[in-house]
């Protein structure tokens, strides 16, 4: 049994005990009838909650003790998850105060400095140059979430089980390329609010300590088990149901919150506060620790040969119950024995083979001109939302549905659709064109297939022709994809529905498209 003067002391004591098991020579493992020395892989540290697991894993990395975090973890609530959230907010909106404040706070900036950067105290309100430059670099990767998130972690030199899990979860959520950065932000926020857990099982190495929660250890066995964090309020846990409304077998349906209002100087102040009635009821009720005792039994019974219990400066009743055992008071690392040890090495992971990247046509346009950095494929004079509304109405018209809203541009859309009589018309068609080591993907507004040709139409609500060169690149990609699929010649039309005119042109050669890909 080990006690520390603080949580950090307790965790350092755990790591020293692990080294004691491995390097002192005082402990042996019976394996298939044979006796051998202890390896890191023989040891498991079981914690009551994921937060203790994560902080212990971080300390283990610093101390050179190779360990893996196993089981389900609230990855978005970790430092790694919150850093991604902060940067996505900052990338999505340069003026986002929450994102910028979180980035600065993680760097250890003082409150006065943060207020100055945010312009709260009359300061310039300008982010440090290295952060603003990094934002611009990330902005170019907004259509490649895997690269974007990886770049965030590389900026901090982070590479661990959590970073891999966060990257995987967010990249999978992006599959289909329709989700936006705003959607990813909401996903992370919801996961933090709902305490969503994800599995972060890593590559298992025979030379790695297992760190996981006691809950996730059911059914497993280890030669050596350290049950950590037997602290007051932690194990047994005093946390209650996080929901405001809950059911108690003795007292029925209860509500933890209540409405509070107060008028001060003619101003009504309204708040939702904790219910004193519910708190009083909880104080009167005898605590039922049976479930926590069963969990402790599960954790302790995972040990096949050696068992160690640890606590901080305020040990729980569970720890005190076993107080007759030998307890080591951990106060000074200098008092510990020094062992001749070597730092464990992570398992060798083969290099990933190069894979073809999926790149949206909008991202390619963004690489050519930063004016398209918001993800739109046009620069409408009446705003992006207006352009989107016109496109949706045009789509309904092509399906024979009368739009609820009428826009001036729809008259030109009707003229274009009427001019395609005699062709097979398909709208909102997804397409893909392989170029070098990438696959360009996009959505064509209108594909009209005649007997001898294919016409590619794309509606634009721009007030000027300034972006015509980029639109020619966009439609040329669509045209080459259509020609490859249908085997017919293609002609392109940029339909300026606000200006009531169409620009007809032949697709650019593939060499021009290949050159544009080099800018990615």
TrEMBL record:
| InterPro entries hit by this protein | DNA_helicase_UvrD-like_C, DNA_helicase_UvrD/REP, P-loop_NTPase, PDDEXK-like_dom_sf, PDDEXK_AddAB-type, Restrct_endonuc-II-like
Where in the numbering of this chain does the UvrD-like helicase C-terminal domain appear?
1-219
Q: Name one GO molecular function term.
A: 3'-5' DNA helicase activity
* PROSITE patterns for this protein: UVRD_HELICASE_CTER (PS51217)
* Biological processes annotated in GO: recombinational repair
Keywords linked to the UniProt accession: ATP-binding, DNA damage, DNA repair, DNA-binding, Exonuclease, Helicase, Hydrolase, Nuclease, Nucleotide-binding
Top EC category: hydrolase
As recorded in UniProt, its EC number(s) are: 3.6.4.12
Q: Which residues form the signal peptide?
A: none
> How is this protein annotated for GO cellular component?
cytosol
Mind telling me which PANTHER family this protein's record contains?
A: ATP-DEPENDENT DNA HELICASE SRS2, UVRD / RECB / PCRA DNA HELICASE FAMILY MEMBER
This chain belongs to which protein, by name? ATP-dependent helicase/nuclease subunit A
Q: What taxonomic classification does the UniProt entry list for its organism?
A: unclassified sequences, metagenomes, ecological metagenomes
């Amino acid at each position: 049994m080990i006690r520390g003067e603080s949580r950090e002391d307790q965790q350092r004591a755990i790591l020293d005990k692990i080294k004691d098991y491995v390097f002192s020579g005082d402990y042996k493992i019976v394996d298939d009838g044979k006796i051998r020395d202890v390896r890191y892989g023989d040891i498991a540290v079981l914690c009551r909650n994921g937060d203790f697991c994560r902080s212990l894993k971080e300390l283990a990395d610093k101390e050179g003790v190779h360990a893996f975090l196993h089981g389900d973890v609230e990855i978005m609530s970790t430092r790694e998850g919150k850093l991604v959230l902060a940067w996505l907010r900052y990338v999505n909106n340069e003026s986002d105060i929450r994102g910028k404040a979180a980035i600065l706070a993680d760097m250890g900036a003082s409150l006065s400095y943060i207020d100055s950067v945010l312009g709260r105290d009359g300061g310039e309100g300008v982010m440090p140059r290295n952060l603003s430059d990094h934002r611009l670099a990330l902005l170019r990767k907004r259509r490649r979430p895997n690269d974007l998130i990886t770049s965030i972690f590389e900026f901090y030199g982070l590479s661990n089980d959590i970073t891999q899990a966060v990257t995987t979860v967010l990249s999978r959520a992006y599959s289909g390329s329709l989700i936006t950065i705003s959607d990813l932000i909401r996903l992370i926020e919801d996961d933090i609010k709902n305490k969503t857990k994800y599995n972060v099982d890593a590559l298992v190495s025979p030379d790695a300590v297992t760190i996981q929660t006691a809950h996730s250890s059911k059914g497993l066995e280890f030669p050596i088990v350290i049950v950590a964090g037997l602290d007051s309020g932690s194990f047994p846990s005093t946390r209650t149901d996080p929901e405001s409304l809950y059911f108690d077998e003795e007292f029925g349906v209860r509500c933890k919150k209540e409405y509070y209002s107060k008028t001060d100087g003619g101003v009504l102040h309204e708040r939702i506060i904790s219910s004193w009635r519910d708190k009083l009821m909880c104080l009167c009720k005898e605590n039922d620790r049976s479930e926590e005792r069963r969990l402790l039994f599960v954790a302790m019974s995972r040990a096949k040969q050696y068992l160690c219990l640890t606590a901080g400066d305020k040990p729980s009743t569970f720890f005190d119950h076993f107080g007759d055992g030998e307890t080591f008071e951990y106060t000074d690392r200098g008092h510990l024995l020094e062992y001749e040890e070597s730092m464990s090495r992570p398992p060798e992971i083969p290099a990933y083979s190069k894979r073809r990247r999926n790149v949206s046509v909008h991202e390619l346009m963004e690489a050519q001109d930063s004016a398209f950095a918001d993800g739109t494929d046009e620069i409408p004079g009446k705003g992006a939302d207006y352009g989107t509304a016109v496109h949706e109405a045009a789509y309904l018209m092509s399906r024979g549905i009368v739009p609820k809203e009428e826009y001036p541009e729809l008259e030109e859309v009707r003229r274009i659709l009427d001019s395609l009589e005699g062709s097979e018309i398909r709208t909102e068609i997804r397409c893909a064109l392989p170029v070098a080591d990438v696959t360009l993907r996009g959505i064509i507004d209108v594909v009209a297939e005649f007997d001898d040709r294919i016409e590619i139409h794309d509606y634009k609500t721009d007030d000027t022709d300034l972006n015509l060169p980029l639109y020619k690149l966009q439609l040329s990609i669509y045209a080459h994809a259509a020609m490859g699929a249908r085997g017919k010649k293609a002609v392109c039309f940029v339909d300026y529905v606000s200006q009531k005119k169409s620009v007809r042109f032949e697709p650019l050669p593939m060499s021009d498209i290949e050159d544009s890909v080099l800018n990615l």
